[in-house]
Amino acid sequence: MNQNKPLTPLNNYEKGVAIWLTGLSGSGKTTISLPLVEKLINMGYRVQILDGDVVRQKLTKDLGFSKEDRDKNIQRVTFVAQQLVKHGVIVVCAFISPYLSEREYARSEIGNFIEVFVKCPIEVCEQRDVKGLYAKARSGEIKNFTGIDDPYEEPKNAEITVNTSTSTLDDEVDQIIKYMKNTNYIS
Asked: Of residues 131 and 79, which shows the higher confidence score?
């Protein structure tokens, strides 16, 4: 069996693509990804979600949060996303992915790639933080926390920017769906 041969798409318009949601912890990446995935499935598409928290528990639990480990995390996720995209799956990736270089690496490896900058002021992210991670980072209990003592490099040319402090969840999902239709990833 040839594992490199793409699966037959569910319809003539379907082609794989990675929708890469990037932003600070608490910006709304997972919050957007869940209804986005549900909507795409209801439209008849094959969809897989790769969420940073879940991936860290299962696929990359051996990695820490140094720059080198963050890069390895994104390299592994990129490989998985690339394989799914190659087989006609829409992959929704929700990762802080704080460095421009790692997002550009993912874009170059995956090919069909839509970067979504989930923009949100850090103050709002801190207010939303049910896990208390920002407080722990500010007190020094957590090191290398993005936005506190580790940088977040905002995208320079994201295909889509949603500001979750000023827009509604429905509008954010609709903006992504509209872009996918306009670029012929979905019909």
From this structure: 79
Residue 22's DSSP bridge partners are 117
Both tokens of 141, joined, read 């209990």
Give the ranges where 1-141 is alpha helix by DSSP (H). Answer: 29-42, 52-58, 67-86, 100-110, 122-128, 133-138
Task: For residue 56, name the pLDDT band (cuts at 50, 70, 90).
Answer: confident
- Which among 114, 129, 127 has a CA at the least distance from the CA of 162? 114
Report the alpha-carbon distance of residue 12 to residue 26 in Å, rounded.
37
Residue 20's nearest CA partner among 124, 153, 161 is 161
Band the pLDDT of 3: cuts 50, 70, 90.
very low
Residue 115 per-residue DSSP state: E
Selected residue with higher pLDDT from 81 and 64: 81
pLDDT at 116 over 50: yes
Q: How far apart are CA 85 and CA 162, in angstroms?
A: 23
Tell me which of 25, 33, 97, 101 is the catalytic residue: 97
Give the total residue count for the chain.
187
Which residue is associated with the tokens 């991670």? 133
Q: Tell me the HSE value of 81 on the side-chain side, using a 13 A CA sphere.
A: 33
51/12 Cα distance (integer angstroms): 28
* 101 catalytic per annotation: no
Burial of 107 (0-12, 13-18, 19+ CB in 10 A): middle
**Structural domains of the chain ordered from first start:** 17-182 (3.40.50.300)
